C-alpha cells in the first residue's frame, strides 16, 4: 500500500506543537552520534556537524553548476530524514524570506530568538545557533534592515517567469545568495553556512520555489547529463554504503519521488 506523502509547511504556519517538536529534533541531532560510530575525537562532535560539513566537501553551489537545484534537494531531504528518524512527525519547514511578512518583520522569532519559554522557564533556542567546531558557535548580523529581502523578492519574481530549467536555475541562484548576505556572519561563508540552523529553512525555501516553478512548467526539458548525474554522497533509501547506489538527478525531479509535498 502506497504511503501518502508528508507535508512541508511554511515556518509561519507551524502549530505550537510542531514548533516544539522541531526544536526537540534539532537538539537531539546535536546530541546524536556520528554515522558509523566514528570517534568523537574527530573534528565533528555530532551528527548535525557531520551533515552540515557535506556542503563543504560535496556542495554544488556554483552559479554555472546545473546540479545546483537537484543536489540541494537531495541534501535537504537527507537532512530532513535525519530529523525524522528522531521524530517522524517533523518535516523541514521553509522560510519565504521574500514574502511581505518577512520584509516587514525580518527573521521569524522561531529561528531568531536566542531563547524561548517552556512552562515559565527560559530555555536556549536550538534553532538560533549551533556549534561549528568546538568551541566555536555560529552567529548572525543583528541588522534590522530588510532592503536586501526586497531585492531578493524582485529577483525571485524574475526567476519564476523563466521557461526552462537552465534559466530558472541561473536566475534563482542569486536569490539564495541574497539570503546569505542578509543573514550575514556565519551564513556569508560556505565553510560555516550550513552549521547555522537557519540554513535549512532558507534553503528549503529554495526547494519550495523550484517545486512551485515545476508545477507551472510541467513540460520542462532537463539535460540528460543532469538526469543521469549521481548526487553524491546521498544514497538511495534502499542502498547501503557498500553498494554505493546514489540518488540521481532523475530520482529527485519531483518531490513526490522522495515522499513529500509542499503545503
Description:
The protein is built from eleven helices and six strands. The protein is mainly α and about 260 residues long. It has one domain: di-copper center containing domain from catechol oxidase (Orthogonal Bundle), CATH 1.10.1280. Strands 1-6 form a two-stranded parallel ribbon. Strand 2 and strand 3 (about 120-125) form a beta hairpin. Helix 4 crosses helix 9 (about 200-215). The protein is globular.
Give a brief rundown of this model.
This protein has one domain (6-262): di-copper center containing domain from catechol oxidase (Orthogonal Bundle), CATH 1.10.1280.10. It contains 11 helices and 6 strands.
Low-confidence stretches at least 5 residues in length (pLDDT < 50)? none
On the 0 to 100 scale, the average pLDDT is 90
| Cα end-to-end separation | 23 Å
What CATH architecture do you see?
A: Orthogonal Bundle
Overall tally of structural domains? 1
- What sequence of helices (H) and strands (E) makes up the elements? EHHHHHHEEHHHHEEHE
* Sheet of most strands: 2 strands, parallel
Question: What is the subunit organization of this protein?
Answer: single chain
Main structural class: mainly alpha
CATH class: Mainly Alpha
The CATH topology: di-copper center containing domain from catechol oxidase
Count of alpha and pi helical runs: 11
CATH homology superfamily: Di-copper center containing domain from catechol oxidase
Number of beta-strand segments: 6
Beta percentage is 5-15%
Helix content: 40-55%
Which helices and strands appear, and what pairs or packs with what?
Layout: E1 6-8, H1 16-31, H2 47-52, H3 54-58, H4 68-86, H5 100-105, H6 109-112, E2 115-118, E3 121-124, H7 147-160, H8 165-183, H9 198-216, H10 224-227, E4 230-235, E5 246-248, H11 255-258, E6 260-262
Parallel strand pairs: 1-6
Antiparallel strand pairs: 2-3, 4-5
Helix pairs in contact: 1-4, 4-9, 7-8, 8-9
Amino acid at each position: 500500500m502506497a504511503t501518502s506523502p508528508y507535508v512541508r509547511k511554511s515556518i509561519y504556519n507551524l502549530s505550537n506543537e510542531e514548533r516544539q517538536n522541531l526544536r526537540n529534533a534539532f537538539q537531539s541531532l546535536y546530541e546524536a552520534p556520528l554515522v558509523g560510530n566514528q570517534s568523537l575525537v574527530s573534528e565533528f562532535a555530532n551528527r548535525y556537524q557531520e551533515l552540515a560539513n557535506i556542503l563543504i566537501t560535496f556542495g554544488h553551489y556554483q552559479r554555472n553548476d546545473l546540479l545546483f537545484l537537484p543536489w540541494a534537494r537531495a541534501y535537504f531531504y537527507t537532512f530532513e530524514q535525519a530529523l525524522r528518524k528522531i521524530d517522524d512527525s517533523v518535516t523541514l519547514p521553509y522560510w519565504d524570506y521574500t514574502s511581505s511578512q518577512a520584509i516587514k518583520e525580518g527573521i521569524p522569532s522561531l529561528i531568531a530568538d536566542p531563547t524561548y519559554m517552556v512552562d515559565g522557564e527560559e530555555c536556549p533556542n536550538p534553532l538560533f545557533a549551533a556549534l561549528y567546531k568546538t568551541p566555536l558557535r555560529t552567529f548572525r548580523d543583528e541588522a534590522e534592515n530588510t532592503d536586501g529581502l526586497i531585492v531578493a523578492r524582485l529577483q525571485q519574481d524574475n526567476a519564476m517567469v523563466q521557461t526552462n530549467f537552465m534559466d530558472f536555475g541561473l536566475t534563482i541562484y542569486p536569490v539564495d545568495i541574497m539570503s546569505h548576505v542578509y543573514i550575514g556572519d556565519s551564513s556569508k561563508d560556505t565553510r560555516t553556512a550550513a552549521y547555522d540552523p537557519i540554513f535549512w529553512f532558507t534553503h528549503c525555501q529554495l526547494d519550495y520555489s523550484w517545486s512551485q516553478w515545476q508545477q507551472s512548467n510541467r513540460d520542462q526539458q532537463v539535460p540528460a547529463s543532469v538526469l543521469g548525474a549521481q548526487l553524491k554522497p546521498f544514497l538511495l533509501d534502499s542502498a547501503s554504503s557498500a553498494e554505493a547506489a546514489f540518488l540521481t538527478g532523475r530520482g529527485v525531479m519531483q518531490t513526490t519521488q522522495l515522499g513529500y509535498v509542499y503545503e
